[in-house]
Amino acid sequence: MSLLSTDSPTAPCGMPSASFDDGFSAAILFNQGEGLTYNDLILHPRHIDFGVNDVVLTSKLTKGLALAIPIISSPMDTVTESTMAINMALLGGLGFIHYNNTLEEQVAEVRKVKRFKNGFITDPEVLTAHHTIADMDIMKRTNGFSSVPITDTGKMGGKLLGMVTNRDIDFVTDRQTPLHAVMTTNLITANECSSLSEAFHLLQASKKGKLPIINAKGELVALISRNDLLKSQNYPQATKDDQDRLRVGAAVGTRESDWERANALVKAGVDVLVIDSSQGDSTFQINMVKRLKAEHPSLQIIGGNIVTKLQAHHLIEAGVDGLRVGMGVGSICTTQEVTAVGRPQATAVYNVAKYASQFGIPVIADGGIANMGQITKALAVGASCVMVGSLLAGTAEAPGEYFYKDGVRLKKYRGMGSQEAMTKGSSVRYFGEQSKILVAQGVTGSVMDKGSLRQYLPYIIQGIKHGLQDLGIQSIVQLHETLNNGELRFERRSIAANIEGGVHSLHSYEKSIT
């Protein structure tokens, strides 16, 4: 395409005026009969008139739930349990607890997230004065609590008698000592009518770790934690509910037993459920979505996985609040090789997002993300956020232990369609739980150590901000506006262009954490 239009009006200097219709709009690019991946695309830069820190990445996860950053962690058993979900939420994203475990284990993981960052803690563990230090030791090992309120009933709502903290019991050798012998009884408390702000100010003034909240009868109704106050200051973008608790998602399947699991997760306080199927356009998923929306109308539900507009149409009719797009494109997924079914990810995201946007349904790009630039590309073709697995699997917060191979520190990472994961229970995701022969649609591998998520994720976020700045765009909302009106321009990349755009022509080099 020529940059100069020969039939344009003549400019004052005698040169023809320039035509700036460079590159292609998404509407043209994605309608040429060929499926495209992220590596097939490059975005054209535009004029910049703002700083990188002026870029805002707030985006919708579902119709009723927004995030400060457009990244969520995948419900895979080597990616997301409570530690990952807690840190994702603190940093402005969200984590989805996998369901390759028992109902009780998944519920416990959700509860750990909901209890981690509270304002008023309304369901703390409580003991009686007749319990022993050994009982508190068990509670500490199980839940990680360093202090426990003591009431006459051993339950919330009982009369507050005292508090036991680490300082009361650390040097007591007889662990059968009853708590009434060591508990602190001279307590500073707040009235139940106090606001969260008032309670926090009282906690600051008291210089205590916990502040009990009591009613007029002296009965324990809640707690305030100093650690929670500090976290509120350190993580201002944390994804929180209206009770100041961290938000968390969880995955469920489409079997009858998953109905019981879903209800237990709702009772535990889960904020959003993803119906986890490798092929989401099924009668089983549609019926599950309808049933959940009828029973829990305010619960946010994400359907998927899908890759076509017709699939999106069926799930939107069923009542989903968000759509998960991607089939066979993950780094450890072999679905396309095994089944010959799927779609290149950039094309899938663009087409589904274009259709779903008519109904206000956000799209989650799931899979095919290997670096921060591909996150920017996923957002640029219509995704509201991305779900990542391998990108986070090597962090300290991911489940599993590190190991060394050839001098490199690694963590195991496996697809939920791998033989190993399927024998643990994920075969239901592939409608194969009744099969005598399990056909793997994923592999087990390993990924390099990426350090702590608390340093790694902000690095990725800053990279995305740089990407949007180079596009001359300050928000994801504006990004999607320029996508839809054709102002955002793309170009196809050849194999040689991909090589040219990466590191090349060096004898050796060191690469940063991404």
How would the blueprint of this fold be written?
Layout: H1 26-29, E1 41-43, E2 59-62, E3 65-67, E4 71-73, H2 82-90, E5 94-97, H3 103-116, H4 133-143, E6 147-151, E7 160-165, H5 166-169, E8 190-191, H6 196-206, E9 210-214, E10 220-225, H7 226-234, E11 249-252, H8 256-268, E12 272-275, H9 283-295, E13 300-306, H10 309-318, E14 322-325, H11 335-339, H12 345-356, E15 363-366, H13 372-380, E16 385-388, H14 390-393, E17 402-405, E18 408-414, H15 419-424, E19 444-448, H16 453-470, H17 476-485, E20 490-492, H18 495-500
Parallel strand pairs: 4-5, 4-16, 5-11, 8-9, 11-12, 12-13, 13-14, 14-15, 15-16
Antiparallel strand pairs: 1-20, 2-3, 6-7, 9-10, 17-18, 18-19
Helix pairs in contact: 2-3, 3-8, 10-12, 13-16
The biggest sheet, with number of strands, parallel, antiparallel or mixed sense and barrel status, is: 8 strands, parallel, barrel
CATH superfamily of the largest domain: Aldolase class I
Strand order of the largest sheet: 4-5-11-12-13-14-15-16
Termini separation comes to 35 Å
Helical content stands at: 25-40%
Query: Structural class from helices and strands?
Result: alpha/beta
Q: Which outline best applies?
A: elongated
- Specify the number of helices: 18
Mean pLDDT: 87
Q: Compute the gyration radius: what is it?
A: 26 Å
Which CATH C-level class of the largest domain is it?
Alpha Beta
In the CATH hierarchy, the architecture of the largest domain is Alpha-Beta Barrel
For the secondary structure, the number of strands is 20
Instruction: Enter the CATH topology name of the largest domain.
Output: TIM Barrel
Give the low-confidence spans. Answer: 1-11
β content, as a range?
A: 15-25%
Instruction: Please give the domain count.
Output: 2
